[in-house]
Structure formats: C-alpha cells, structure tokens
Write a structure and sequence with these properties.
The complex is a heterodimer of chains A (21) and B (125). With 21 residues, chain A is mainly beta. Helix content of chain A is 0%, strand content 24%. In chain B, α2 packs across α3 and α4 packs across α5. Chain B starts with a strand and ends with a helix. Chain B is globular and about 55 Å long. The chains are: A mainly beta (21), B alpha+beta (125). Chains A and B meet through β1 of A and β1 and α1 of B.
Chain lengths: 21, 125
C-alpha cells in the first residue's frame, strides 16, 4: 500500500465461530 | 488515501477454520495415518504442506475424500503438525522431535523442518 496511510486496527476482525453449538 | 489493516485478521480466520475443523463443518478429506483418521480441509492442508499441495493440484487426486499416508508416518507427529497448521503453534517435545521432523520432511513443510533442526541443535549439550 505504497503512498497509503495505513491505520492499524488491533481488535477482532470477524465474528467468532463458537466451539460447539 | 487510508487503508485500515486489521492486524488480527489472519489469526482470526485461522481460529475460525480450526473451530470448523473441530465441529467437522465443511471438512472434505480424511487423512489416514496408521489406522488413525484425521478430518481436515484440503485447502488448509495444501496451503501448509508441499506434499498436500502436489496431491490436491493433481486433477486425478483432488477429488479423493480419503488419503492414506506412508505407514512409516508417526500419528503423534502428524497430530502435532496438523495442530500447527490450524493454530500456528508447534508443540515440540524432545521425545517426539524425530517423529515430528521426519513427518515434516515427508509433508514437505520446510520451515518446520528447519525449526526442528534448530530445536535439536539447541537441546544438544
């Protein structure tokens, strides 16, 4: 991403699939 | 322009793939190692292992739903490497290091082989 300001997002990015339902 | 890089995304995806594996959701192959069976996703296996990449890019073999590994492969070593593929964590035990390394050589997981070599060297008095 040359020339792009990259902002870091440290939190979870997607939903979490449960271990068991 | 700005770009948001979600730094946890790769590990979050892998965590979910491992949850899918543990619940046997969309797993599409059974790996047989000395009568022990391991369910997994072909895409994860081929992304991590040169041997599985070769198998599943072969148009004659890619639709197989069971693959038998060489009977010399140690199931405990395979368990540790499969766990590594889905978690990024490689559990190295001195008692199993040769089994893990030989299995990694067989599966063509070169970086894991290098890591085993370093572990053996560092444990050598």
């Amino acid at each position: 991403y040359e020339g792009v300001n990259t902002i870091k997002e440290m939190g979870r990015s997607i939903h979490e699939i449960p271990r068991q339902e | 322009d700005s770009c948001i890089q979600f730094t946890r995304h790769a590990s979050d995806v892998l965590l979910n793939l491992n949850r899918l594996r543990s619940r046997d959701i969309l797993t599409d192959v059974t790996i047989l190692v000395n009568r022990q069976q391991f369910r997994a996703h072909k895409t994860v296996l081929m992304a991590c292992s040169g041997l599985f990449y070769t198998i599943f890019t072969d148009s004659l073999k890619c639709n197989l739903n069971a693959i038998s590994l060489d009977p010399k492969v140690d199931p405990e070593g395979f368990t540790i490497l499969l766990e590594f593929m889905y978690t990024s964590r490689l559990t190295l035990k001195e008692s199993l290091i040769m089994a893990i390394m030989n299995t990694a050589i067989y599966l063509q997981m070169d970086h894991v082989v290098d890591t085993c070599h370093r572990f053996i060297k560092s444990s050598d008095p």
